[in-house]
Amino acid sequence: MPAKLQSTGDRKLPEFTFEKSPDSIRWSRPTMHRGVVELCAPASFLADRDEVRQLIECIVHAFDFTVVDYGETEFDPYGITAFAVVGESHVSIHTWPECGYAHVELLTCTPLPDSQELRSRFPVDEEYIVKVVSDAE
Known about the structure:
It is built from 3 helices and 9 strands. The strands form 2 sheets. A 6-stranded antiparallel β-sheet has the order 5-6-7-8-4-9, with helices on one face. A 3-stranded antiparallel β-sheet has the order 1-2-3, with no helix packed on it. It is an alpha+beta fold. It has helices at about 45, 50-60, 115-120; strands spanning about 5, 15-20, 25, 35-40, 65-75, 80-85, 90-95, 100-110, 130-135. Mean pLDDT is about 85; it is low at about 1-5.
């Protein structure tokens, strides 16, 4: 039997229908665009909440995103996960200071540039960028 999901309240979303059977769920996936940047950076930078927050703010500015909310969690003994919920979706950073590594993900409903353009617009010196992947390829 098809299930119907519909929003309540003032803001109505389009009706979304999916069918669930023992074998599968049929649904339609919205168009999303994903970019990933892997960084190699000093542990002191990757363990600093203010630096990580500033990096997210620079990414948001570089890609002209609209910030809706921001959050972060610091892990013991080290590491930070920080995110910005943006009108276009989100930006997240996960750091491993003990490895000198950070994983940055941009997920948006607006197209992202190809990996070369993503790399050139990313607000970090080239020497710190290890890998860039964009689904625009």
